[in-house]
Amino acid sequence: MSRVGKSPVEVPNDVDVTIVNDVLTAKGKLGEQSVPLGADVMVDFADGVITVKPANESSHSRAMWGTVRSLINNVVVGVSSGFNVKMDIIGVGYRAAVSGKTLNLQVGHSHEILYPIPEGISIECERPTQISVSGANRQRVGQVASEIRAFRKPEPYKGKGIRYENEYIMRKEGKKK
What we know:
Outer Surface Protein A, domain 3, 2 domains, four-stranded antiparallel β-sheet, 13 strands
């Protein structure tokens, strides 16, 4: 029995949900997104609540139950409030700035890294050492944050690099004489 699949998805008042031809579409203040449902689950929308049930007792149908419910929840939350990932830059001389549709990173390489900001994603730098990635699609926000982090991953000796805000880096002791 899926613990995730059993819980219903609450739909806020400012989000419009329609189900047509096994595709759930949600429209909100941050845009429109859709999820293909497939034949393995049954989705019901009534009174502002979306419930998901397996279509039959097959193992694939039971496995897709919680997955489809999570995808639906991500779409509903995405179009209503969006997702946000904050990142910190640690290191002497390391900084970031946004100019137009480009993120400019100076993270210890011999050159500046110019990262083009994808469509549907917004990147802000409140401080030169903090990056905020936000958008309506949870997968794309996480992917962009992961690509930015990959330019200079945090290293375990001094902790320098780009890390997520709540990420813990296990520190190592340096070489002894």
